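Per your request, structure below.
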């Protein structure tokens, strides 16, 4: 069995820039900078046959490439701290195509509205007093746009020391 999701990788210089946002919130478990990514669709545990079908379905997607700019910081409740994404219709178009392709294979859609983000930290017993200060301090964060020319099927292995991600296949855009 493989635990899969579809995402967009980030250029090394952007990962470096994001890594400078780590720190300053007691109780936060900061994501390893090598693991930063933007999730398009979480799939979950699949067997080999399903993985082959997923690969074939993703390979059939046609969508244009686009530029993507990360900006601002936000949080999902007291669970997750993230960097946001500037308004990007082309990204949402791609996400919808990926989402429908995976849904058509019978995987259960995520009921939550898609909110593009790059997770910076998972919060455990976060300091509720430090979180607003962190958000205020980094609210104006903005990184130079980067070119998205492919998206990726990624395997996630859960280990005691955190998730290990392994790219399985890239799919060209444009
Ligand atoms: O991109 P982020 O870090 O927000 O939280 C997991 C991670 O999201 C999410 O999929 C991404 C790659 O692991 N994830 C894990 N389990 C999930 C689930 N059951 C999930 N998303 C939706 N449903």
């Amino acid at each position: 069995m493989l635990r899969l999701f579809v995402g967009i990788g980030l250029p090394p210089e952007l990962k470096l820039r994001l890594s400078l946002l780590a720190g300053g919130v007691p109780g936060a478990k900061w994501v390893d900078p090598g693991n930063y990514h933007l999730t398009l669709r979480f799939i979950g545990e699949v067997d080999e046959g399903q993985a082959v079908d997923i690969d074939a379905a993703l390979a059939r997607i046609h969508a244009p490439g686009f530029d993507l700019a990360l900006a601002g910081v936000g949080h999902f409740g007291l669970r997750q701290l993230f960097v946001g994404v500037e308004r990007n219709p082309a990204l949402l178009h791609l996400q919808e195509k990926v989402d429908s392709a995976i849904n058509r294979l019978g995987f259960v859609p995520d009921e939550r509205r898609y909110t593009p983000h790059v997770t910076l930290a998972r919060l455990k017993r976060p300091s509720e007093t430090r979180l607003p200060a962190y958000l205020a301090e980094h609210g104006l964060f903005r990184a130079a746009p980067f070119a998205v020319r492919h998206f990726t099927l990624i395997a996630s292995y859960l280990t005691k020391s955190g998730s290990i991600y392994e790219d399985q296949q890239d799919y060209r855009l444009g």
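The two ends are 32 Å apart (CA to CA).

Regards,
D.
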